[in-house]
Amino acid sequence: MTTPTPPTTDGSTPGVRRVGLYATLVALALIFLVPLLWMVITSLKTYTAAQQIPPSWLPNPLAGYGYEQILNNSANPVLRWFLNSMLAATLHSALVLVTASMAAYSLARLKFRGRGVTFALIVGTLFIPPTSLIIPNFLIVDQLNWIDTLAVVVVPGAASAFGVFFLRQFFLSLPNELEEAATLDGANQWQIFYKVVLPLSRPALATLAVLSFLTNWNDFLWPIFVLFSPEQLTLPPGLGLLQGSYVTDYPVIMAGAVLASLPVLILFVLAQRHIIQGVSRSGLKG
């Protein structure tokens, strides 16, 4: 004879609560997945089918019109924009990891006068609206002759206050005994940082790399101000050129959106385990 499942404190059984939880998760998943599916489906339609009212879920006929337009149109070099964005985002992420990891380690482990004030000032810059820095940054990169070059979308944001804060919190969660043991073995401060701390910080570094990549990859406003040549554009402002003044070619725009989404989705899938570990451990100590 089976024992009935006791009700929970709110009067419902665990089975009912589990069904409700799964139903909520499915609904949330659909909210995120339906726009992605619609984007892919529209990119496989013809121009006429995409304008159809009411719209259809299945592309009939199945066409690669949108992809042909963005890949073979010399006036809009989408592949060049894609490569520019990929190179800029990769270099930007690498610079953020280098600068943020060294600054964060200094603020987490090294003892020096004004450490707390320095950290407070760095965190305080997170409250400054990024749009208010466009003109000062533009004047600086103009003096450096970086306008309309790849460096102008790679370097300015490499000093990441969020990256310093995020990695500092993670470094504080690491046990001091590991560094003390390395010191007893004769390691200096740089060797401890490079050979002990960084290998243990792979989850946090992977998380910060992904976040930095996404920030640079999706940046639309700053490249508009500093990139002028069509061949120097990155993907977000470049895709904006596909929007006509009087006619909207939805398959072409959605094909460009698919191309822009693929690296982000692939990167997230590959780094998902590290992201979860990094976020869960970075808030253990303050």
UniProtKB/TrEMBL annotation:
The chain crosses the membrane at residues 21-41, 81-105, 117-140, 146-167, 250-271. Pfam families: BPD_transp_1. Residues 82-271 form the ABC transmembrane type-1 domain. One of its GO terms (cellular component) is plasma membrane. It is found in: Cell membrane. It is a multi-pass membrane protein. GO terms for biological process: transmembrane transport. InterPro entries: MetI-like (IPR000515), MetI-like_sf (IPR035906). Gene3D superfamilies: MetI-like (1.10.3720.10). The keyword Plastid does not apply. It comes from the Bacteria. Keywords: Cell membrane, Membrane, Transmembrane, Transmembrane helix, Transport. Belongs to the binding-protein-dependent transport system permease family. PANTHER family: ABC TRANSPORTER PERMEASE PROTEIN MG189-RELATED, ABC TRANSPORTER PERMEASE PROTEIN MG189-RELATED-RELATED. This is Carbohydrate ABC transporter membrane protein 2, CUT1 family. It comes from Micromonospora saelicesensis.
